[in-house]
Specification:
The protein has 595 residues and is α+β, with helices and mostly antiparallel strands. It contains 18 helices and 20 strands. The longest helix has 22 residues.
Length: 595
């Protein structure tokens, strides 16, 4: 059975944007918001990385909107306050539990490659172009999927219009938000490349410098863009004037006079935008400890890799093991699952992904028998998901342990009727391509750098090379957990390829190690993605490193991993526990309609 939290937790929902939602004068100076990482109550809940977005989502729920309405409104707000991680210039994956049908459904809003892109797009003179040059370019920009995702979700499950969903975020953009330390740090980290584009410099480097903590940053261009999207619909972006402006920006990025950066033009054309579609996809599903865990199918590798790792770990009584031995199995299981991810997962329209076999318990059992008392040398080879399984079958040739880095954001919503959304959206790197569409107020993504630039699997076909219209492989892992058909937990995280291990480790903390959800989210993290060393936070290394090193694991310290938001059902009376990060990425914000 699902372990209910035994903590008595209290929190209050700060009325951060009540004034903002009742149209005060545009000159009014917003107050800096507070953040509450934990909230308990009824009537619905929202958890995100940002208090403005959380409060906008809660306002939608208070006014009778459902979880989908709240998710879209909150996501639009993140495009204002978290513009380096999300926005209408990017894409994402939307997982929804429908209380009326008891079904989990998903939307694939992943960006697509333009028709002119081929497998050598990131290769010059026979060698891959430098990754940093690929990132900051028109070449890296995929056709955005976020606006199409919003329109499709609202049309299928929402109760408000796109115009209504965008209105609070447009007002937030017009009034402005208070800059915090995280936003300033992210701006400083990108300042050199932001300064090389006239449109980006004008928006995010006022006076030529990153905005000061406590100052108010307004984005009136984005407010107008949201207004036009609400009025004309998303065709304005895919087949209207904004489409032409996006294409012009990609083909001829607005490089500042005197800039010396190599900025390659992109391949996107108007027909690429006109042809874009967000897609309904069947979710992934595995059983774990008597629960049903639903995730996102390819081109995301989140659902398949989290699911395979859970199936592998189903072979072990993690709760009954010494914690070091349990963590050893967690690290080895993720290495095995990543080996299979790297070898087999790509856009299913272009690659024959053996998804059913990757998620089969029989395949996982075969892989689990490879976990020894000590760590295997990394990278480990992929398995053979061929439907014929025997204990400890010989493994295939070693594949690449290459992983992707990036920045993303995640939000979780739950309404009074029991509908649930786990939504992960992104523009890829922190700051995306670095290119703001002039006078439109949003950054373009660099998602096409998620493709492998050259084959990484030796003689085997590489599933993630660029092709016309193809969707690059992603690690986004929005996840919903059901217990006997009822939702009990929803979660997700940003963090590039470490999203997968972040979601998995949070699940293990909650389901196997008996932690409360706040503790499961706050616990120190480690990420093994089939690489020679484990990326881990300093607190994890300090606590578990020596014992795991004795088993053969090696560690590389990274400042932080992921930024989870999650909501858990506490009881059948509708009490919810909403949780966001207390510290990572500056801390998130969780709120409930009725504390």
């Amino acid at each position: 059975m699902f372990r209910r939290s035994q903590l008595v937790l209290t929190a209050t929902v700060a009325g951060l944007l009540c004034a903002a939602l009742t149209a005060p004068p545009a000159q009014a100076t917003p107050k800096p918001p507070s953040k509450d990482p934990v909230a308990v109550g009824t009537g619905g809940a929202v958890a995100s990385v940002d208090p403005y977005a959380t409060e906008i989502g809660l306002q939608v729920l208070r006014r009778g909107g459902n979880a989908v309405d709240a998710a879209i409104a909150a996501a639009a707000a993140l495009g204002v306050t978290e513009p380096y991680s999300a926005g209408i210039g990017g894409g994402g994956f939307f997982v929804f539990y429908d209380a009326a049908t008891g079904e989990v459904e998903t939307i694939d809003g992943r960006e697509t490659a333009p028709a002119l892109m081929d497998e050598d797009a990131f290769v010059e003179n026979g060698v891959p172009i430098p990754f940093a040059e690929a990132v900051t370019s028109g070449l890296s920009v995929g056709v955005p999927g976020t606006p199409a995702t919003w329109a499709l979700a609202l049309d299928r499950w929402g109760s408000i219009t796109l115009r209504e969903a965008l209105r609070p975020a447009a007002q937030l953009a017009r009034r402005g938000f208070v800059v915090d330390e995280t936003f300033r740090q992210q701006t400083e980290a990108n300042a050199a490349r932001f300064a090389d584009f006239t449109s980006t410099r004008e928006l995010f480097l006022p006076g030529g410098e990153p905005p000061e903590v406590g100052s108010v940053l307004r984005n009136r261009d984005l407010a107008r863009t949201y207004g036009l999207l609400g009025h004309y619909g998303v065709d304005f972006l895919y087949d209207g004037r904004l489409a032409a402006e996006i294409v012009a920006t990609v083909i001829d990025p607005p490089v500042a006079p005197g800039a010396t950066r190599v900025v390659r033009p992109g391949l996107m054309r108007l027909p690429d935008l006109a042809a874009y579609q967000a897609l309904f996809r069947e979710p992934t599903q595995v059983a774990y400890r008597g629960l049903d865990v639903f995730g996102m199918a390819p081109p995301s590798s989140g659902g398949s890799t989290v699911g395979e790792a859970l199936n592998i770990l189903e072979n072990f009584d993690l709760a009954g093991l010494d914690r070091v031995q349990a963590l050893h199995r967690y690290l080895e299981a993720t290495a095995l699952a990543f080996a299979d991810r790297n070898r087999y997962v790509g856009d299913p329209a272009y690659v024959d992904v053996p998804l059913a076999e990757l998620l089969s318990q029989a395949f996982a059992d075969e892989r689990a028998c490879l976990i020894a008392p000590t760590a295997a040398p990394k990278p480990v080879p992929p398995g053979s998901p061929d439907g014929v399984y025997v204990p400890c079958a010989p493994a295939a040739a070693v594949g690449s342990g290459a992983t992707a880095a990036g920045s993303t954001t995640h939000l979780t919503t739950w309404d009074r009727w029991g509908n649930v959304v786990a939504y992960t959206l992104t523009i890829e790197q922190t700051g995306g391509s670095g290119i703001v569409v002039p006078d439109r107020g949003f950054l373009l993504n660099n998602e096409l750098t998620d493709f492998n630039f050259t084959p990484t699997q030796g003689t085997a076909p590489d599933p993630n090379l660029p092709e016309p219209g193809k969707r690059p492989r992603s690690s986004m892992s929005p996840t919903i957990v059901l217990d006997e058909g009822q939702p009990v937990l929803a979660l997700g995280s940003p963090g590039g390829s470490m999203i997968i291990t972040t979601v998995l480790q949070t699940l293990l903390n909650r389901l196997d190690f008996g932690m409360t959800l706040p503790d499961a989210v706050a616990a120190p993290r480690a990420s093994q993605r089939n690489t020679p060393t484990v990326s881990a936070e300093p607190a994890f290394i300090a606590q578990w490193g020596p014992a795991l090193e004795a088993l053969g694991h090696a560690f590389t310290s990274v400042p932080e991993i992921g930024a989870v938001t999650a909501i858990e059902r506490q009881d059948d009376a509708g009490r919810l526990l909403a949780v966001a990060e207390p510290v990572r990425r500056g801390g998130g914000d969780a709120g409930v309609v009725e504390p």
